[in-house]
Specification:
With 308 residues, this protein is an alpha/beta fold. It has twelve helices and ten strands.
Length: 308
């Protein structure tokens, strides 16, 4: 039994397809299949049921895969300990990030990070909060950039910045004439909201007590803030955007932005890691670049802001 064989069975379990798993592992399908078959012969069990499509593990295969995952996590941890002792920035670093953060934060820091540290190999995946927590628990990613929530006590939180919410109001909306938005103003207004499971949406619904958000979700099952912004710009409804997005707007788009009345709803963005995480040099470099890429006033919570 080898670590390579364990990596192969995890890949097949992840893709439910031998050819896709082989491509992911940068080997030919016959090579991957032969290595897995050799492991099955050694263990005298079938790990995968090849008669089904997509491929699924057998009952005993499920247990073997879970144990393989734990073995590979511990094996990688040894490498990470050595790299951290050397204060190394080499090696692959897998980063999860919320879709409501990625388009607005990544362009601010990622190009500069790649330029100043060309040896870094950071792989970024957009994921919802629940998926990031699950991926951290399974050690499929090294860290996640998320909004700070109450149910994260199993992880270590590293503060990044404070991101205020704003309204984005079409010119045809009666709220366009308002200088500031109050939660009471939003009753019975056509709202463009993300699907449930997006913490950006959930935080605003909770803060504003938006019953209309449920009707919005029933009508429009969309998951992109950018899509909603285009709908508002075309003359219909209201959506909500983070301060990071406001920083990127053109002058005509800025005219559609409306702040909330005080206290203004604000989310804290953090980096989430496992309690066993040891790659502090890599994390400190990442956090430093992010904090330098945003306006200084976003690094502290203002007295006029309320965390949601």
């Amino acid at each position: 039994m080898t670590l390579q064989q364990l990596e192969y069975i995890l890949a097949v379990d992840g893709f439910h397809h031998f050819a896709k798993a082989a491509e992911h592992c940068h080997v030919t399908q016959p090579t991957l299949s032969a290595m897995i078959q050799k492991l099955e012969e050694e263990l005298e069990v079938k790990i995968f049921d090849r008669s089904q499509q997509p491929v699924v593990p057998t009952p005993i295969g499920t247990h073997i895969i879970e144990q393989a995952r734990r073995v590979l996590v511990e094996s990688n941890q040894v490498k990470h300990i050595i790299e951290e002792e050397k204060h190394s920035l080499s090696g692959t670093f897998h980063l999860g990030i919320l879709p409501s953060i990625a388009p607005y934060l990544l362009p601010r820091f990622f190009p500069q990070l790649a330029k100043s540290h060309p040896q870094l190999d950071i792989r970024v995946t957009e994921m919802k909060t629940a998926d990031i927590k699950q991926a951290l628990g399974r050690s499929e990613i090294d860290a996640g950039i998320v909004a700070n929530l109450d149910d994260m006590e199993l992880f270590v939180k590293t503060p990044l910045l404070y991101d205020q919410f704003y309204g984005y109001v079409s010119r045809e909306s009666p709220l366009f004439k308002h200088d500031r938005l109050r939660t009471s103003d939003l009753v019975n207004q056509p709202l463009w909201m993300l699907d449930e499971g997006h913490c950006f949406r959930d935080q605003l619904v909770r803060f504003c007590q938006l019953e209309a958000a449920r009707a919005s979700q029933q009508r429009y099952r969309l998951g992109s803030l950018e899509t909603f912004m285009r709908m508002v710009e075309s003359g219909r409804g209201i959506t909500f955007i983070p301060e990071l997005a406001v920083l990127q707007l053109t002058e005509p788009q800025q005219a559609l932005v409306r702040p909330f009345a005080i206290p203004t709803p604000t989310r804290q963005l953090i980096v989430l890691t496992n309690k066993q995480f040891v790659r502090r040099t890599m994390l400190d470099t990442l956090v430093g670049e992010i904090r330098q890429s945003v306006p200084k006033e976003m690094l502290k919570l203002k007295g006029t802001q309320q965390l949601v």
